[in-house]
User: What shape does this take?
Amino acid sequence: MELLTSKKFKLPTLYFLTNREEIKELPIGIPFIMGNETDKAYFIQLLEWEVLYQRAIQSGLPFNWEKILKDNGYKPVYGPQGFPVFFDYKESDVDYDKIEADIIDLSSIKEDNGDFKQYINDCTAIIDTNKLKDLKVFPVWLDKIEKAIETNIHNFAIYNPNMYNKKLEGMYGALEFTSPSRNLIICDISGSMTKSIATFILLYSKTMAETFYADILVTGGISVVYPYELIHTLDVDKVYTEVGRGNEGDIFKTLLSEEKTYKTAIVFGDNDHPGGYASRNISDADGKKLCKWKVDKVISFHRTSNTDLAGYSRWFTPKEVEKIANWVKYLN
Assistant: This one.
């Protein structure tokens, strides 16, 4: 556990944790992020870029984001990006439960292909972290640590009037930290996803999963679920080697064919959806029939649209849908 610092700028107070057990050592409400030791440099860069971006915005003047980054010693790139289109299909009589998919064993993959190290420098877009903080899916960091602690306690605790109060020695109520139902985070990292977006959500997915009690599903050329208990095995350096930059629907369909229940699913993506990339085209109507994952609420982060659902949430039948608008700022 360590406080993240930069040689270039003063960063917000934010502790970097590599082990879930370290959370117990932090005072309640202290802002933190989770990751592997190799992720630390990535987080520092993202925070540095956020500091630069906020300064540019506060100036109120037009700015060239790529030039600002270069002037501050970075080597920004424009990552490869596809242009997804909607694939919609008519309802059919196909028995999709008979379609099998090969689940790929990732344990044999030892080396990364270097894609993540390249894509972390993509300057095409920047994410508005306030949108995620407002959803209370990971602790807030602010300039003043006292304010951050106060905000985080309010975000992650509730008052239970039935609890025993030690100070008052009676059933007068006390502060109780929430223990939510299991949730889900879906990260589409396919070729059409802007790389600055994909790398950001991959890095922060562990922290979101930790504070939001969530499983993580990463989808690209294959789809892989990292249960909450195993989120530490998600290695962002290898993810583009393991998962790839394509799209698929067969493994996704197989995963959704086993019954699971989630309170909320946060889905990052674009127009690409599993029905358009399965070995047999699957309509949304058929996808909803075969999906056995019960999701009460979907929070959709579509990278370019304020009205469309992120594609890999289209087979769910939630009671509530929230579409997050203007969470990505495309630059230059």
Remarks:
- Residues 2-71 form one domain.
- Residues 94-104 have pLDDT under 50 and may be disordered.
- DSSP finds nine helices and 13 strands in the chain.
